[in-house]
Specification:
Strands 1, 2, 3, 4, 5 and 6 form a 6-stranded mixed beta sheet that branches. The chain is globular, with a radius of gyration of 14 Å. A hairpin with a 3-residue loop joins strand 1 and strand 2. It has one domain. The chain is built from 3 helices and 6 strands; from the N terminus they run H-E-E-E-E-H-E-H-E. By secondary structure, the protein is an alpha+beta fold.
Length: 104
């Protein structure tokens, strides 16, 4: 999903949740949940997943989005290292989810 497509989904009232997924190495991805789907934000060409280096960088990119908040999600590192089932039920939804305003 591109930023323009995300804008349309928000304007149509279909967005349910916006998340910033934190990964090791200071890498963040934006995930949108709408219409029972979960998709990652891609560049405007729709070719590559859009990577961010910080919450502030993601906020700057999304500043025009008419949505009030974003959930910062940190995965459980122990679960990522394990093969097979996650160690906890919460791991499949992120070990920590913190709702933050999209605009500080």
């Amino acid at each position: 999903m591109t930023l323009n497509e995300l804008h349309r989904v928000v304007e149509q009232g279909r967005l349910q949740r916006l998340s910033l997924l934190s990964h090791e190495g200071g890498l963040y991805l934006v995930e949108a949940r709408f219409d029972g789907k979960v998709v990652l934000l891609h560049d405007e060409a729709g070719q590559q997943v859009w990577h961010f280096r910080s919450l502030d960088q993601a906020r700057r990119a999304l500043k025009e989005l008419p949505w009030p908040s974003i959930d910062l999600v940190h995965q459980n590192v122990a679960d990522e290292a394990c093969v097979g089932e996650p160690l906890s039920e919460a791991a499949s939804h992120g070990a920590m989810r913190l709702r933050l305003p999209l605009r500080p």
